[in-house]
From TrEMBL:
UniProt family annotation: Belongs to the LysR transcriptional regulatory family.
SUPFAM superfamilies: Periplasmic binding protein-like II, Winged helix' DNA-binding domain
Stretches assigned to coiled coil: none
Any one Pfam family match given in the protein's UniProt record, by short name: LysR_substrate
InterPro entries for this protein: LysR-type_TF_proteobact-type (IPR058163), LysR_HTH_N (IPR000847), LysR_subst-bd (IPR005119), WH-like_DNA-bd_sf (IPR036388), WH_DNA-bd_sf (IPR036390)
Protein name according to UniProt: LysR family transcriptional regulator
Length: 296
């Protein structure tokens, strides 16, 4: 039978990213950890980690075991710390990742409210527009654009996110008109190079067909907030989310372009581990965000 120690070491190695890193955290030598991992794989009968001199990655079997062990070990820790703890109490640390724009405008205030209602829980919020590596970075929940490629994760649509091609009146003044998608090639386009974005290949859906336009521009960023500032400052044309620029569209600081064409939605999803028995901290947070996101 696999010992709890060997299983805990396996989880520690995945979280640390390397055997040597896990050794420093656990106070064990790399040789000892390697021996225990080999014994665990032999007992289970499958390879859990692909290891080389430079890199380490989980096998599909390793991913399944890792996510199940997170729940089991979390439950064991809670059981030993307080047998009288109510089942719905959230304890420990909750690591949340969010896109920059939505994180600043809505998620940050909701997390503060959630933290106030859960005094025994520490919540860490990380803002960024890059793809999240749940295992390596140790996140419990992510709020991101689009669904994850990892089929072991659960993704629920949190917000519909309509998008528009837009620009400021200052940029458009004196420049050639934009009547059809191909006209974008004559203009300075601001490019968002982040996970879930369209980058420099913009999809535009007309009444009869969909066009893919390869745009160019001298300004590229991986940060949605920077893109917003650029388009408002008149540096070019951008694809922006309705929730992010609706006030500017209403006041005329920005105008939408290419009437009759639409851009596919870039919907926001709340993503977390695919496991039946979620820790209370994750379960409660997901429920809270789903209930409160439209009120923020």
């Amino acid at each position: 039978m696999n010992s709890i120690t060997d299983l805990s070491i396996f989880v520690g190695v995945v979280k640390a990213g390397t055997i040597s890193g896990a050794g420093r955290r656990l106070g064990l030598s790399p040789a000892s950890i390697s021996k225990r991992l080999a014994r665990l794989e032999e007992e289970i009968g499958v390879r859990l980690l692909n290891r080389s001199s430079r890199a380490m990655s989980l096998t599909e079997e390793g991913k399944i075991l890792y996510h199940k062990l997170l729940v089991i070990l979390d439950d064991l820790e809670e059981a030993t710390s307080s047998v009288s703890r109510a089942g719905d109490n959230a304890k420990g640390t909750l690591k949340v990742a969010s896109t920059v724009g939505l994180g600043k405008s809505r998620i940050a205030s909701l997390i503060a409210e959630f933290s106030r209602n859960n005094p025994e829980l520490v919540v860490q919020l990380y803002l960024g527009d890059k793809q999240i590596d749940f295992i390596r970075e140790g996140f419990d929940v992510a709020i991101a654009i689009g669904q994850p490629s990892d089929s072991t994760m659960i993704a629920k649509r949190l917000l519909k996110n309509r998008c528009f091609v837009c620009a400021s009146p200052e940029y458009l003044e004196g420049r050639s008109p934009i009547r059809k998608p191909s006209d974008l090639k004559k203009h300075e386009c601001l490019i968002l190079d982040s996970y879930g974005s369209f980058r420099d290949l913009w999809p535009l859906c007309g009444p009869n067909h969909r066009e893919m336009v390869r745009v160019t521009g001298s300004l590229i960023t991986d940060n949605s907030e920077t893109l917003r500032n650029w388009v408002l400052s008149g540096y070019g044309i951008a694809i922006k989310s309705e929730w992010d620029v609706k006030n500017e569209l209403r006041t005329g600081k920005l105008v939408t372009l290419l009437e009759g064409y639409t851009v596919p939605n870039m919907d926001f999803y709340i993503i977390y581990g695919s496991r039946k028995n979620l820790p209370a901290k994750t379960r409660n947070f997901v429920k809270f965000i789903e209930e409160r996101i439209h009120q923020a």
